[in-house]
Structures are given as C-alpha cells and as structure tokens.
Amino acid sequence: MRQRRRQVIQSAMIETFFQPQFELRQLCCFVAVAEELHFGRAAARMNMTQPPLSRHIQLLEHALGVKLIERSNRVAKLTPAGRVFLLEARRILHLTESSTQAVRRTASGEAGSIALGFTASSGYSYLPRLLLQRATRTPNINMVLKEMVGTDQVDDLLTGAIDVGLMRSPVKSSGFTNIKVASERLFAALPVGDPRLSQSSLRLADFNGQPLILFAQEGARHFHDLLAKLFEQEGIVPVTIQSLSQIHSMLALVRAGMGTAIVPEAAQALHFDDVHFRPIITTPADPVELYAVWKTDNENPAMRPFLHLMEAGWTTDPDKESDSVLDENC
Q1: CA-based, 20 to 30 A from 159: which of 31, 68, 71, 324?
Q2: E-only strand ranges, the chain
Q3: Does 97 share its domain with 7?
C-alpha cells in the first residue's frame, strides 16, 4: 500500500513537472495585444471577440505568475515584465514556425542530409560538379562526404553509414541500384622531353615494351584490371617499373622522369608541373566509368531530389528492365 502511494505521488509530480505552462495560442494573443496595444484591434487581428482574447491573456499571466499587460478602457500597456516576455514570445513563435517548416521539408525530401561515399578519383571532376549543382538546386540538403575505396563503400551502404556511393564498378548483388553517372577517356601522363608529346593523341600500341607506372592490384584493383584487359585485347606487354594505388603519386613519379602513366581523364585537374597529357584512343572510347550506387530500400526522403541532380548524365544499368529507376525505386 505504501509502495502504491509512493508511485502515485511520483506520477503526479512527473505529470506536474512536464505539464505545459502555456499554449502557443496564448502567446499569439499576447503578441497581438503587445503589438497593437489595443484589445479591440488585437481581437480583430486574431479573428476573435475580446472576451476570449482577454481570457487567453489572463491564463498566460496566471501560468507565468506575473502581470504582462496593464488594461485601461481597451487600451493596453506592457509592464516591464511584459516588454521582456514579448521578445521571448516572438522568439518562441518564430522557432515553432521554423521547426514546423524544417520538419515538413525533411519529410518531403526538400531538406535533410545525404551521406555520400566517393573514391578519390571521382573527387577530381565529377564530385565538384555535383556539389555545385546541389548548392544551386537543393541548398537545404546537407552533404556528409566520406572518401573511401569501393569495397568500403559497399560495407557502409549495407550498414546504412552512407546513403549513396560513387564507385567505379556497379554492385551486382541484389538489393542495390546502380546507375552510370559519368564516363571518361584514358590519358597518357608524359614527362617533359617524351617524344610522344609530338602526337596529339596516342594508342595503346605506343606503350608496348615501354616503361610504365601502373595501378597496383591492391588498392586500385578496378584501374589495374581495366588496363590489364585493354592491354590483353591488343596484345600489349608494357614494362612495369612501379605499381601505385594513388593517381597523384603516379603523376609525381612521371614528373620525376621515371616513366609514363595511364590515368583517367579527370587526373588533368591535378595540374602537376612538367606533366603533359595526351588522350589515348581505345575501344570503347570512354572506358573509365563512374556509378552511383545505393540500397534500393533506402527510405531517406532526401534521396529522391538528390538522385535527380545526377539524372541528366545517367545511363540505366543494362540489367534493369525499367527506364525510370527513380519512379521504380524511390
């Protein structure tokens, strides 16, 4: 019995503590009177008669335990406490309105946050263009950027740590949607004095038996396998002098005169001194591809407007039957 009485008392204390002291409607009425300094005009502004308006003010004063307004023949005058509370009431009402709008924008996808994983090379060209579009078309969507290799992106997509991944190969596992968002050519990075600089473009045959700085299998598997496939198709046997995983490191060795490198077109954005670029004619012409990948069941409302940013450059995954990935999955 004593335990039951204690629980009832605690419940009553909690209910009293969390009970709202005043309502937003009362704040609106107070601000109207405080700004009009006339109960008649304030009542008309609030689309009500004066008695309920006065009642709202009285309830508010009772809840606060202070007098806010001096009344005299429908004319109102703020007390010192009323002048202070007017500033707070306006702030509360503004915060309430802005919070409501923010929640509605988030629910509709007009605002929110997208966690985007990307590979280093996608940050040279495609990613900056995408972020510029975002700033113009969806400024209320915040971007959380995470640089990581493709395999780590897949892991983070599975756990929900990122919403979208920008990676070089599509994910063929069920539950993922893959869209090609960009493709580019391969370029030769040549040091000063290389005789091939006299040519406006090169072919893979120009590298047969020549020293090359190539992508390492570990850390740059996609580019390593892509070049290996192209070399095999044309019977090219390059001489590998170094294998690296990062494009900027490869260009640094080219600048040092250690050899040439074959890199994606976007590598030109790094602007290394004394490193010159020439396009390489290949089949296909644009073998370097970039995919946007996301979990098909991703429920983030901001996904739809964000994916629309990339829509113009999209090529639908050939394994997909529908031409409208957005309509089908978002």
Answers
A1: 324
A2: 69-72, 75-78, 112-118, 141-147, 164-167, 176-184, 186-191, 202-203, 211-215, 239-244, 260-264, 275-281, 288-295, 315-316
A3: yes
The residues, ordered by sequence, that sit 6+ positions from 85 with a Cβ below 8 Å of its Cβ are: 30, 64, 66, 68
List pLDDT tens digits, range 150-161.
989 999 999 999
Q: Which of 108, 135, 169 is the last residue of a domain?
A: 108
| 30 in the same domain as 95 | yes
pLDDT above 80: residue 323? no
Q: What domain range is 150 assigned to?
A: 114-182+289-329
What CA–CA distances, in Å, run from 141 to 46, 68, 131? 35, 41, 11
Say yes or no to pLDDT of 64 above 50.
Answer: yes
Of 77, 55, 58, 60, the closest CA to residue 21 belongs to 60
Structure tokens at 280: 């390489």
Q: What confidence tens digit (pLDDT) does each residue in 7-44 have?
A: 544 554 444 444 457 788 988 989 889 888 888 898 89
Q: What is the pLDDT of residue 306?
A: 87
